[in-house]
Write a structure and sequence with these properties.
Layout lengths: L20 H15 L5 H7 L5 H27 L4 H15 L7 H11 L4 H6 L5 H16 L2 H6 L7 H15 L9 H24 L3 H29 L18
Length: 260
Amino acid sequence: MNAMITPQPPLAAPLAEPLSPEGLEAALRAIGAARYHDLHPFHDLLHGGHLNKGQVQAWALNRYCYQAAIPRKDAALMGRCTDRELRREWLHRITDHDGFGEDAGGIERWLVLTDGLGLPRDYVISTKGALPATRFAVEAYVRFVQDNTLLEAVASSLTELFAPSIHRRRIDGMLANYDFIDETVVAYFRRRLDQAPRDADFALDWVKRHARTAEQQQAVLDALTFKTEVLWAQLDALHHAYVTPGLIPPGAFRPTISGG
């Protein structure tokens, strides 16, 4: 299952003049088209049924680190936000993942996924088996949202513009190609088909209204590029550890199930 990692295109030259709101949106979407992690070979393997169960377990376990960090990064954003409109809209991102009332939330749905793959829940939640690169990438994203401008923090969420497509591919591909995947396991992705577009539409409109200067717009473009690199780095680590050359770091999850 050797796969060539496609090098990412270089950054465009810094903006000299501000773009129109429509031009900024086009530039953001161009970053997604060139850099979103749906292009990574690991996803082709995952969605095409070319991984064994142990490799799918490794993906789900490592991705939990990212899922569990989302409410923390959103709370960090809200904690320094003076824009009431933004806080009111952003609040549901935390409850979408942590749950509220009768809705158990996205993190619970992800744990249902790892339950269905046969991973002990306590082990998943501990993140002890996650790859070091996964943990570093995820914490880098949380720190980015904590340390950079509010505009950059919001812009970094705009990978959600491109998420529905990969969710659809994941649902269809995993249900079709793995006998250990069923509707219960893919419930997280079905829910995000509605949630991600709603979140992305608001964030995109907010960024287009608030990024007015060339400097602000360049920061927005760089923030989205950074986020795509966070996602890409996680898949690089998975591919290196569990596909080829198969070098699993000490302490990381080691699959005991190779069949699918």
